[in-house]
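To the team - iron/sulfur cluster complex, inputs and output below.
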Amino acid sequence: MFSEQFNHPLIQKTVSQSLLVSKDAVEQCIRKSTFSSQDLPYLLSPHAESSLEILAKKSLALTRQRFGNTMQLFIPMYLSNECFNTCTYCGFSLEYKYKRKTLTKAEIKHEASLLAKKGFKHILLLTGESPKHVSTPYLKEAISIITPYFSSIGIEVQPLEQSDYQTLIQAGADKLTLYQETYHKESYLKYHTYGLKRNFNNRLDAVEKGAKAGFYNINIGSLLGLYDWRYEAFAMAEHLDYLTKKYWKAKYSISFPRIQEMIGTFHEPYPISDKHLTQLIIAFRLAYPDLGITLSTREPKSLRDNLAPLGITTMSAESSTSPAGYSAGNYEEQFQTNDNRSLDSIISMLKSKNLDPVIKDWDMSLMPN
Ligand code: SF4
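Output:
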């Protein structure tokens, strides 16, 4: 499994090398017409920052070449804010004593029908991590209820076993999203202070279990702000290289979520600037030409508009981060979003940039039996 070969010292060494690469070496790298993950130390180096404009043009051209003008749109739907973990940066953390909510079957159906009426065909189901409230049978039932409304159903839930993932795929899920939060184990244990989530390796291996179970779409990521962004970048690259080599049939994507405001007070120890986020997106686009890159409503409107053409392939819209959030449920949210525009407004923005919003580009009927 990936945890057995996850190489923290090597990642740390790569970060140090990236910080030290010379201006000349970076300029030489930038002149290349194709890139690979071997180029990441140059693309993510401090000297590459002054060439972001040139790199952005290359990233834009490569994205159009590989993905055309398309931008896939999806909406997240929270099934529950119950959680048995303490994660110091999250609004669902066990320590907060407010009324928790897990949607009933009728509520799932109602919420799903509202989102389908808005025009969404791709949905991402999210929960806190509470095996008692959001068990595999509960998730299976939720997926079965919403299957008639959507052409693609993603899940972002607690790490599960391969057999659980198989159950959910059979029920209709086709995309697995699971963020490691931070690949830096020491920091991971510092910010995950209680609960099953403290098991770093269990989380690290869960994506692989999903790949073995047969997920066709797999999305990984780090929650940026918990540790040094370059370390997270090289660790994600290592994870991605491992997965693509071993489970080559799956389609991979990556997210770079940044920590946002929530009910508690958490100050991210390693904030990442807009400029470095942009550098990260561009570097991954160039190093992995076929990689999907997702940008959520965590980011503000103006930044999303500017980043959309540069390498992004999937965006969320109209997101709520609380259960029953689209039915005015008034339950606690996981974090605040920063782009509250309607689906129509996001579509108009994309069209103004000559991008083609895609509400549906995948259908469960395309899945091999
Ligand atoms: S990050 Fe996930 S596991 Fe941690 S408190 Fe939030 S919902 Fe629970």
